[in-house]
Structure prediction request, 92 residues.
Amino acid sequence: MKKKLMEILACPIDKYYPLELHIFEEKKEIVEGLIVCPKCLRWYPIKDEIPEMLPDELRDEKEEVEFLKKWRKKIPEKILMEGKPFNLKTEK
Prediction:
Protein backbone atom coordinates (compact mmCIF):
# COMPACT_ATOMS: atom_id res chain seq x y z
CA MET A 1 0.00 0.00 0.00
CA LYS A 2 1.26 3.47 -0.76
CA LYS A 3 1.41 5.91 2.18
CA LYS A 4 -0.35 8.51 0.03
CA LEU A 5 -3.52 6.39 0.17
CA MET A 6 -3.92 7.45 3.82
CA GLU A 7 -4.82 10.95 2.57
CA ILE A 8 -8.17 9.66 1.27
CA LEU A 9 -9.03 6.74 3.56
CA ALA A 10 -11.78 7.09 6.15
CA CYS A 11 -13.21 4.49 8.54
CA PRO A 12 -15.84 2.48 6.63
CA ILE A 13 -17.92 2.15 9.81
CA ASP A 14 -18.13 5.71 11.19
CA LYS A 15 -16.52 7.66 8.30
CA TYR A 16 -13.93 9.19 10.66
CA TYR A 17 -10.91 10.87 9.06
CA PRO A 18 -7.91 10.95 9.39
CA LEU A 19 -6.93 7.41 10.34
CA GLU A 20 -3.71 6.32 12.07
CA LEU A 21 -1.10 4.27 10.25
CA HIS A 22 1.27 1.82 11.93
CA ILE A 23 3.91 0.31 9.64
CA PHE A 24 5.37 -3.09 10.52
CA GLU A 25 7.18 -3.96 7.30
CA GLU A 26 8.01 -1.64 4.43
CA LYS A 27 9.85 -2.03 1.14
CA LYS A 28 8.91 0.29 -1.73
CA GLU A 29 5.40 0.20 -0.31
CA ILE A 30 3.85 -0.78 3.02
CA VAL A 31 3.88 -4.59 3.06
CA GLU A 32 2.45 -5.22 6.54
CA GLY A 33 0.84 -2.75 8.89
CA LEU A 34 -2.26 -1.55 10.65
CA ILE A 35 -4.79 1.19 9.99
CA VAL A 36 -6.63 2.39 13.11
CA CYS A 37 -9.72 4.55 13.55
CA PRO A 38 -9.04 6.55 16.74
CA LYS A 39 -12.77 7.32 17.11
CA CYS A 40 -14.28 3.79 17.18
CA LEU A 41 -11.02 1.84 17.80
CA ARG A 42 -11.59 -0.38 14.77
CA TRP A 43 -8.42 -1.63 13.21
CA TYR A 44 -7.75 -2.87 9.71
CA PRO A 45 -4.75 -4.98 8.73
CA ILE A 46 -2.48 -4.32 5.78
CA LYS A 47 -1.35 -7.70 4.42
CA ASP A 48 0.79 -8.25 1.33
CA GLU A 49 0.53 -4.51 0.52
CA ILE A 50 -3.31 -4.59 0.58
CA PRO A 51 -5.39 -2.74 3.21
CA GLU A 52 -8.27 -4.99 4.28
CA MET A 53 -10.99 -2.54 5.29
CA LEU A 54 -13.98 -4.86 5.54
CA PRO A 55 -17.12 -4.47 7.67
CA ASP A 56 -17.09 -6.48 10.91
CA GLU A 57 -19.40 -9.24 9.66
CA LEU A 58 -17.08 -10.07 6.73
CA ARG A 59 -13.93 -10.40 8.83
CA ASP A 60 -12.45 -13.73 9.89
CA GLU A 61 -11.88 -13.68 13.66
CA LYS A 62 -9.30 -16.49 13.70
CA GLU A 63 -7.25 -14.86 10.94
CA GLU A 64 -7.48 -11.41 12.53
CA VAL A 65 -6.44 -12.64 15.99
CA GLU A 66 -3.44 -14.40 14.42
CA PHE A 67 -2.45 -11.09 12.82
CA LEU A 68 -2.66 -9.36 16.23
CA LYS A 69 -0.50 -12.06 17.80
CA LYS A 70 2.07 -11.94 15.01
CA TRP A 71 2.59 -8.17 15.38
CA ARG A 72 1.70 -7.73 19.08
CA LYS A 73 5.04 -6.04 19.88
CA LYS A 74 4.35 -3.29 17.33
CA ILE A 75 0.61 -2.81 17.89
CA PRO A 76 -0.53 -0.18 20.44
CA GLU A 77 -1.71 -1.76 23.70
CA LYS A 78 -5.10 -0.05 23.42
CA ILE A 79 -5.79 -1.88 20.14
CA LEU A 80 -4.54 -5.22 21.48
CA MET A 81 -6.92 -4.99 24.46
CA GLU A 82 -9.83 -2.84 23.24
CA GLY A 83 -9.65 -2.87 19.43
CA LYS A 84 -12.73 -3.78 17.40
CA PRO A 85 -14.07 -6.04 16.12
CA PHE A 86 -11.49 -8.41 17.66
CA ASN A 87 -8.78 -8.07 20.26
CA LEU A 88 -6.60 -10.30 22.41
CA LYS A 89 -8.68 -9.67 25.52
CA THR A 90 -11.80 -11.25 23.99
CA GLU A 91 -9.86 -14.05 22.32
CA LYS A 92 -11.56 -17.42 22.65
Q: What stands out?
A: Residues 3-82 form one domain. Residues 13 and 55 are 7 Å apart (CA to CA). The first helix runs from residue 61 to 70. The longest strand covers residues 20-26.
